Amino acid sequence: MQYNFRLFWRTFYRSFFDTKNTPARLTRKRIIFITLFYLVWPLGSLMHWFFFFLDDILFPGHKTQLIEKPLFIIGNLRSGSTFLHRLLSRDTETFTSLTTWDIYLTPSVTQKKITQFFSRLDKKLGGHLHRLLYAFDRRTLGKFKIHAISFFQPEEDENILLHIWDSFWVTFLFPFMDEMPDYQHFDEALSPKRKHQIMTFYKSMLQRHMYATGKKYYAAKAPAFSAKIETLVEFFPEARIIYLARNPLDMLPSTVSWINYARRVFTDPGEGYIYLDEILDFTQHWYRYPLKYLDSHPSPRHLILKYDDLIQRPEHVIRKFYEQFGYPDKPGLEKIVDEAVKETLSHSSDHTYSYEEMGFTRQQIVGIYSDIFERFGFDKRENELSSMKTQSANITAFE
Which pLDDT tens digits describe the chain residue by residue (399 residues)? Predict the structure, then answer.
């Protein structure tokens, strides 16, 4: 496992000494964040790596842990992956996933075993710690808008790569894009050595998780893996892949809004939408590159799925790919789907956005993604009102 110390040093240096003409200007908000980050993250990393070392001594079996029929949900951001992933996470007899807790607090086998011990003890003593943690979760992560976050909900797998500081997610904390490897074009842009190092670490994280939980099948929400699909299949030959495609007229403004919101949690770049060129570039790649790969590697282990089909007929879609991918039939799936839909709709947000406010026109978006509109038959909305706003509570609930 190789930590990207160079990138860590460069993000540290730029944060304090070279923020001119970047979104990470040294405002009061930014100074508070980077001070807290550099007080907490390095110590946390040392602790995690110590426990990774203990894993090899106490639980060496994780190194040979099989990962059978892992499921990877890819496609662009804001295309239904969270909804599908969290729906599948309710089928606990079939799937397991990395939660926010797993990713940031207990990535090692040893840490998971310690947590499992105290969880069992707490249940015997009345569950007081459990209730306290859930209350803390609601009052902290539960406050985030647009995308519901919880310590106890599954989260995107790209986050786990922060433990080697080699992840697209670094850009959310430190948006110095000129310093970053081109993670958005992973397969095509990174060296074979770097790709191998990153994916070796990622696979080891899944092996630790599967070893510690004893579950059989793993489900990953992994939009950023759209750029890694070739390397992903190399490391997981049994991978089942669901590629989600959403209408660019909805996906693009939602992605621009989400990335600007998420990066502003840690930075203070001022008003307006930024990162537009970057987002236009990688969203086109994350549409076309995985489709090109899947078209050239036809397999019953792959499924190309439209967002509208997923949200309109989730039970039908899930039963179909359970059978196609060789997962066991799930009695009571109708109830699981119903509960997941109700929970999704209950997540409210006052967030609104309009692609016109971002500087786009309908004609421009249709032109940029013309091949995607043609392939999937997406509605081009020629008669759409020019200043239509997308209400996140109604439209983005299933993203």
Answer: 689 999 999 999 999 999 998 999 999 999 999 999 999 999 999 999 999 999 999 999 999 999 999 999 999 999 999 999 999 999 999 999 999 999 999 999 999 999 999 999 999 999 889 899 888 888 877 666 656 788 889 999 999 999 999 999 999 999 999 999 999 999 999 999 999 999 999 999 999 999 999 999 999 999 999 999 999 999 999 999 999 999 999 999 999 999 999 999 999 998 899 999 999 999 999 999 999 999 999 999 999 999 999 999 999 999 999 999 999 987 888 888 888 777 776 665 556 678 889 999 999 999 999 999 999 999 999 875 544 444 443 455 567
| Separation between Cα atoms, residue 388 and residue 396, nearest integer Å | 15
The gap between the terminal CA atoms of the chain, to the nearest Å, is: 33
Q: Where are the alpha helices (DSSP H) in 140-247?
A: 170-173, 186-189, 192-213, 229-235
**Topology of the domain covering 27-398:** Rossmann fold (3.40.50)
Q: Single out the residue of 157, 141, 124, 176 nearest to residue 6, CA to CA.
A: 176
Question: What span, in angstroms and rounded, lies between the C-alpha atoms of 167 and 198?
Answer: 9
Instruction: Identify the CA nearest to 359 among candidates 288, 237, 297, 272.
Output: 272
- 321-327 long-range contacts, CB within 8 A, separation 24+: 321/240, 321/242, 324/300, 325/69, 325/71, 325/240, 325/300, 325/301, 326/69, 327/69, 327/94, 327/217
